[in-house]
Give the backbone structure.
Amino acid sequence: MGTVAIRVEGLSKHYRLGAARVRHNTLRDHMMYRLKALTRGGEGRDDSESSFWALKDVSFDVQQGEVLGIVGHNGAGKSTLLKILSRITQPTRGTADIYGRVSSLLEVGTGFHSELSGRENIFLNAAMLGMRRHEVQKKFDEIVQFSGVEAFIDTPVKRYSSGMYVRLAFAVAAHLEPEILIVDEVLAVGDASFQQKCLGKMEEVSRSGRTVLIVSHNMTVIEGLCERAILLEKGHIAKIGKTQEIVESYADAIRSLSGTAIGARRDREGLGEMRLIRIELLDRDRHPVAAAMTGRDIIIRLYYRCAEGKQFRHCRVSISVNGRKGQDLFVLSTDIVDPRPLTLQGEGFIDFIVPELPLGGGAYFFQSYFESNGHAQDWIKNVAPFSVLDADYYGTGKICPPGWEANGVLIRYRWEAGMPQPGKSFLPLSR
Amino acid sequence: MSALGVNEDRAAILPHVRIRPVTGLLDLDLSSLWHYRELIYILVWRDVTVRYKQTLLGVAWAMFQPIATMLIFTAVFSVMGKIPSDGFPYPVFLYAGLLPWFYVSQALSRGGSSLVGEAPLISKVYFPRLILPLAATIAPLVDLVLAFVAFLGLMAWFDVLPTWRILLLPLFAGLAALITLSGGLWISALYVKYRDVGHILPMFIQLGMFVSPILYPVSKVPESWRAFYALNPVVSVVEGFRWALIPGFQVDFSMFLPSLGIVFVVLIGGLIYFRSMERTFADVI
């Protein structure tokens, strides 16, 4: 047994909707609320109707040097847990003992100021994350080099591309040297090569004996980094154990969640003036089907409804397909294949027509996204399951190799065999 | 169990923090401010830097604003309005009052909105929240110093020579900082909960100029109002500035006592209120 780095006991966080959700942002609202509470016989009764536990009786230990993953749906309490452990908000009940310096990265580039230069922001951001000035000075060159924005280090970050911005921000964070690192989904940003670099840095951090707590929706990241994980569901710990098992349970839980009617889904983000109502699968003759088939044409139909009397310009509708570990496989987006502006109003549907579906048999998930004028309107992760029945994609009677079910896409390819010329060998080449 | 012993040693070296619900009122924890002093410094530096980035005149604006105000107010209130200035040149008299007033109004409005203005920070990173109104109170002191340099020029123009009293100026500047900090604590914490503050604050500050002796001397305030008038702590600051800057300026120091008492009470109350509200900032903001 190692030493305990974090011991959480009976941690609970209670939100009164009166305090958190239905904000009394003006004095008048607050007085009206108090008045109503009085006439209804005290605030106490009102509470029970409009309160919830974001976290309830959560207990676990994290050993020093352990990398612990935290998974769960939106609203399962992951962020609340991280916020309590980072001391941003305090628990309603329970305790958490933390042994060691903590750095938490709940966001990339916390406190970045757009008017300041990259150099100035490094110092600012580092101070916010608890790094001492002399530490920053010592590591300054390393940070700049890691970020790859050397040439623009004295340019205000408002002139940076979003990629540069993220790289610089992560570079600062990557050079923190706390005993305990708390990370929330920061790897969801940046291009693929930079993500790879970040993952490498995270592995390095964990190998150096530091304790890491990481929240992610990407099961590949969790599997790659963590030995142990926690599955949170509605504020409780649903399961704690080996990452492999937790990832399986999470996938099961997604399956049951995405079975609920889309109209009843509360875990959506965006303005909500334009909403997805239903997803339908159709075959090439436009007959509704329950599942798609490998290699056959499929039409994914998204029914939407817009706020009455409103017209939405510059819309973007997209649907992406995730594999069983939550990894993104591909995205279908209206603007990519057809750059003409899309205007939506009232009700309607968008058909995405996919010829020869390149997915092997298995259970996939859809993620839907509506946008107008650059504003997210309706974004639902794991919005519905997407079943694909195995069929003969390659015309050989073979299906995809084991372990690849709902875990990648199929591509068309062929192979050829060759031989060295008589009397010669390839061997010297391979040296 | 040697292994256990080692573990305990290790645990003893590492800093230990216990996170638990805190409900007490008198848990001011001011020592954490010292621990985070570098953050205070860097926030002040950021406020000052950002304010004059991408401006042509840069820090000269900190001098231009009070000078322009002084010229226009002199024209309106002295030349046209014939407001007296206890026999001192009105521009000097006015500017000596505008100096602390610009600081107080700026620090109060920046300090008051310091929490709401940094909402993303508050919900994403931990640090003693007290740092925000504190840094917002300190940053405008830089403008005060610059405006003071311009004042030296004005004194030279009017042939007014400063006396030893000018050495006590930092004392009154410190009082001004305490006043704005105590106000800033209350206002910023209330602002998180009630967005009405955003409407009230600018009006409050604008009216504040007229209930403080900026444009007129205290001698114009009717005797019977004086006791009530002196409850405004800004009166003491303005009078203190004039006493320190203008040779021969008379001040009734007994007026300072009630306002000092008020500042003290408001400051302590503000600290307690702020600390008790601090726990819910991230949830409410």
Remarks:
- The first strand of chain A starts at residue 4 and ends at 16.
- DSSP finds eleven helices and 21 strands in chain A.
